[in-house]
Design a protein that fits this description.
Helix content is about 30%, strand content about 15%. It is built from eleven helices and 21 strands. The chain is α/β, with parallel strands linked by helices. It has a five-stranded parallel sheet with strand order 3-2-1-7-21, with helices on one face. A five-stranded parallel sheet has the order 9-16-10-11-12, with helices on one face.
Length: about 500
């Protein structure tokens, strides 16, 4: 609800995390006039996009919480979505002279873009680097007591010796991401298996696997990426999928092309102490390494809500619209929980809503109404019992020449989901993402050509796994949209340069 009659209120707000979601939150909160502090545990902004060549060597499965190394990015990682759909609404992810200008750039270019964004809007003025939040808890006055530590004085991997800082804020925005804490499968024999086991969180480069027999468990994007990369140095690589539904035409082409050293298996039945990995069809292979590309769990070890917020099978809840916990709103909010959305655009939408609620420009429903809405959402997503996919392979094929509305219809037809997929919105769910922005904060709708570009990109990835990032064919409408985007970005870059460096 909009409250135009009320004067805007400025709140003292702490944003935890300076990755893509945290920077979106910082930008919108400053725009709304709030007194802002952003606490970031790393030595630079960027979150996941700040590549760290280190890994959790002593804990390669990432069983400790929090993990020692935040970033899960490997050295060769490139975007799987086009840069035209991966920028802030008022700061396009446009190519820069002398940098990575590919449509699907590598992780370093994304990090440089986020730094450019910070510079353009002066966000570093409110970011405190090398600062880990140890505890955030509500006070009796419904403010938030936040304890942090300066990691610049961090001496060892086991202990922190930095000075503790205690502060009180009117509100806390949690924006710590969800690609750091490994989620592991429950496979018989994992505890006693004699080989090396690690989660993809700890994977960086293929060289350590030279000459090895490697089993990659998980057929998502990182699993396929890592299996294809390791294939170049390993003796044999076995990529394990849950079922044949995960085997896209593009993956089939890769398997046919590299069949001498890359093999597909369905499921892992058990691991044996002698190094044998037994697959679902009871065949087996003696392996040197098992890499689990099995996703990540939400984790907020610093957050003390006295049980008001729980994580149950990767469902963070209850959260009204994935943002506000009803009993603690509006002083506690989350930005960046949803998956498979236009990022950072959808994070901007969430952040603008939070900023306007905190300023009094908009109001939330009552606690009871928010709780009822959450329960209705859970029920609606669970009754069909299906597993949400962005689009299953056959559905993506059917959608290749379909309208955006056709794709949305397919998405709704598979809407029922298990609990662990609660926050997977789906990049094609235009109805939810656009309606969310219009309903809660007046956010502009996504241009149609960008949806068409994303559909086309996913289709190309499904059909041509090895080459989709560098070999693509645009329709006339996409080509026109991209050309106009480049022109607009160039004009905006020129205006920004003149603002930062005015003529004498």
């Amino acid at each position: 609800m909009v409250c135009d009659s009320k004067p805007a209120q400025s709140k003292k707000v702490c944003v935890i995390g300076a990755g893509m979601a945290g920077l979106a939150a910082a930008h919108e909160l400053r725009r709304e006039g709030h007194d802002l502090t952003v606490l970031e545990q790393s030595g630079d902004i960027g979150g996941q996009w700040l590549y760290d060549p280190r890994s959790d060597g002593a804990d390669p499965l990432g069983t400790a919480a929090p993990v020692r190394v935040h970033s899960s990015i490997y050295a060769s990682l490139r975007l799987i979505s086009p840069r035209q759909t991966t920028g802030f609404t008022d700061f396009p992810f446009s190519p820069k002279n002398g940098r990575d200008n590919l449509r699907y750039p590598g992780h370093r270019e994304v990090h440089l873009y986020l730094k450019d964004f910070c510079d353009a809007f002066g966000l570093m003025e409110v970011v405190r680097l090398d600062t880990r939040v140890l505890r955030a808890a509500m006070t009796p006055t419904r403010q938030w007591a936040v304890r942090s530590v300066d990691l610049k004085e961090y001496q060892t991997d086991e202990k922190m010796f930095g000075a503790m800082v205690d502060e009180v804020f009117d509100a806390v925005v949690v924006a710590t991401g969800h690609y750091s804490q490994p989620r592991l499968p429950g496979i018989e024999g994992m505890e006693a298996w004699s080989g090396r086991q690690m989660h993809s969180h700890s994977y960086r480069v293929p060289e350590p696997f030279r000459g090895e027999v490697v089993v990659v468990v998980g057929c998502g994007e990182s699993g396929k990426d890592i299996a294809m990369e390791i294939r170049g140095v390993a003796k044999k690589v076995y990529l394990v999928a849950k079922s044949m539904e995960e085997v896209t035409p593009g993956l089939s082409k890769v398997l046919a092309k590299h069949g001498a050293d890359l093999h597909l298996q369905l499921q892992v039945k058990r691991l044996c102490e002698d190094g044998l990995v037994v697959f679902g069809d009871v065949s087996g292979v003696v392996a040197d390494t098992v890499i689990y590309c099995t996703g990540y769990s939400y984790s907020f070890p610093f957050l003390d809500t006295d049980g008001a917020i729980t994580i149950d099978d990767n469902r963070v809840g209850p959260l009204f619209e994935h943002v506000f916990p009803p009993s603690l709103a509006p002083s506690l909010s989350f930005v960046g929980v949803p998956k498979k959305v236009f990022a950072p655009r959808f994070f901007e939408t969430q952040a603008r809503w939070v900023a306007q609620v905190l300023s009094g420009k908009r109001t939330l429903p009552t606690e009871e109404e928010m709780l009822r809405s959450v329960e209705e959402y859970y029920h609606a997503r669970e009754i069909a019992g299906g597993v949400p996919k962005l689009c299953r392979p056959n559905q993506v094929h059917a959608a290749a020449n379909a309208t955006i509305l056709d794709v949305q219809k397919k998405k709704r037809e598979i809407a029922g989901v298990p609990k662990k997929y609660t926050h997977e919105i789906g990049s094609f769910d235009r109805t939810y993402m656009d309606d969310f922005g219009g309903k809660y904060c007046g956010f502009p709708r996504v241009e149609r050509w960008k949806y068409e570009l994303l559909v086309s990109s996913v289709q190309n990835m499904v059909d041509n796994l090895e080459t989709f990032r560098d070999d693509y064919q645009d329709s006339d409408s996409i080509r026109k949209g991209v050309q106009e985007w480049y022109l607009s970005a160039q004009l905006q870059d020129g205006a920004s340069t003149r603002t930062l460096h005015p003529s004498p």
